Amino acid sequence: MSILHRSPEGMDFATVSIAVEHPSACAQCSLRKECIPAGLSESDFAMLDTLVSTRRYVRKCETLFRQGGPLTSVYAIRSGMFKLRAIRADGRDQVTGFRMAGELMGLDAIDSGFHACDAIAIEDSAVCAIPYERLMAICAETPSLQHHFYRLMSREIVSERWVMALLAGKRAEARLAAFLLNLLQRMHLRGFSDKELRLRMTREEIGSYLGLTLETVSRALSRLARANLISVRQRLVRIEDSEGLRMLITAGESPADSPT
After folding, report:
1. End-to-end distance of the chain based on CA atoms, in angstroms?
2. Which of 28, 43, 71, 204 is 20 to 30 Å from 248 by CA-CA measure?
3. What's the pLDDT score for residue 259?
4. Residue 86: partners with Cβ closer than 8 Å, 6 or more residues away
5. Are 120 and 62 in contact (CB under 8 A)?
6. How far apart are CA 42 and CA 102, in angstroms?
7. Could you say which residues of the chain have pLDDT below 70?
8. What is the CA radius of gyration of the chain?
9. CA dihedral (146, 55, 93, 251) positive or negative
């Protein structure tokens, strides 16, 4: 759901998402295994249902929160996908990550109190807004939830280190192979195929994330396809040889083209 706002000059428009108040029903949510820990009591679930009472719908290309904005909530994605985008010191945009259903956003702001990136929907999406101060209060009363929250923050740190290692000295095909396998694994955990994935993001966005140009991403996809490691049909990618992709990542080199 959204509202159109007109500037005082009557020329510019901005579309913003709005919150809808209703119970989120954590206990019945199909994504609860990703967002909250196992073993919570019924009273703990009731507490969470009270906490996560605001669902926000965000249309494609809308911004949920902006770089430099204050931390008010963390967000559990119920559906759709977001890209995280930061403005670098030289003024250029840099995609720093992609988040999908069952994952949290906003943890980047815990240290400074301000978001380090924009969160932009790359398709129509829905999130549960979790007020940060209330979350911390409940974590103090619920050790299992506190432990799970710390585990999520640790996962964020590991993910950032993985990206840094990915970009350090590896060739374009190895970077792309690692990206595809990581995305496939995350999608499979949510019930999707373990062989095929549909790229929700553009090739330009993938390139920004991997530190590659649009043209390089396209050439790398073609090269992986010629080596029979993947097959590509528009945005649908099928993994033909996952072990070959893993070997490519380890070697960090381009695959040899298969004979024609």
Report:
1. 51
2. 204
3. 39
4. 67, 93, 94, 96, 116, 117, 118
5. yes
6. 21
7. 1-49, 53, 252-260
8. 20
9. positive
